[in-house]
Design goal:
single chain; alpha/beta; Glutaredoxin; two-stranded antiparallel ribbon; 9 strands; 38% helix; 25% strand; globular
Length: 181
């Protein structure tokens, strides 16, 4: 009887292990306004993460603007448990100071991070995001960066709880915040 229970537990355990979803996320570090910054130093209950760049002409400002609207609609108690983190993937052009200011232009509580290519690439890999810089003579910058357009909802350990691709409404962001808070 005991061996049958152990065998059954082993079968269920092995099945769970083989079929579990991969865990995304974790701790990462970058540069915040000229100082070293590490996610695990001061995590909130729910952390929103977005990869982009400060000179992005379209998706980044929309995502951050809608996120700002969403957060403003929350109660003060909810706001205390949330943090928005913007990570620039434009390591050649976005300085720590201008990324911090860029993020705070949407909301004073937003954290804008930059860093070395090694730091940013490690963070991008941690969250299975992506970006690619392309030379583009037609662009006013002379280049463009295609990047993941998704808000990641992280727990206090930096583990992804949920994501929202193409965040184009404050209501959809509020819904995800409430589902995960």
């Amino acid at each position: 009887m005991v061996s049958a229970v152990l065998a059954l537990a082993l079968v269920f355990g092995l099945n769970w292990y083989q079929n579990r979803q991969p865990e995304l996320g974790g701790d990462f570090q970058a540069n915040y306004n000229g100082s070293s910054w590490k996610f695990s130093d001061d995590p909130k209950k729910l952390n929103l993460l977005y990869f982009g760049y400060a000179k992005c002409p379209d998706v980044c400002p929309m995502a951050l603007s809608y996120t700002s609207q969403a957060i403003k609609s929350l109660s003060d108690d909810q706001k205390k448990n949330i943090r928005m983190i913007f990570v620039s993937v434009d390591v050649e052009h976005d300085t720590p100071a201008n990324v911090a200011v860029y993020a705070q232009n949407f909301d004073p509580s937003f954290i804008g991070l930059s860093g070395t290519k090694q730091n940013i690439d490690a963070a991008v890999k941690t969250f299975a995001a992506s970006y690619i810089e392309e030379k583009d003579a037609k662009s006013y910058l002379g280049y463009s960066i295609s990047h993941t357009d998704r808000i990641y909802f992280l727990n206090k350990n930096g583990i992804v709880l949920d994501t929202l691709p193409n965040p184009r409404s404050a209501d959809s962001i509020v819904q995800k915040i409430k589902e995960n808070l």
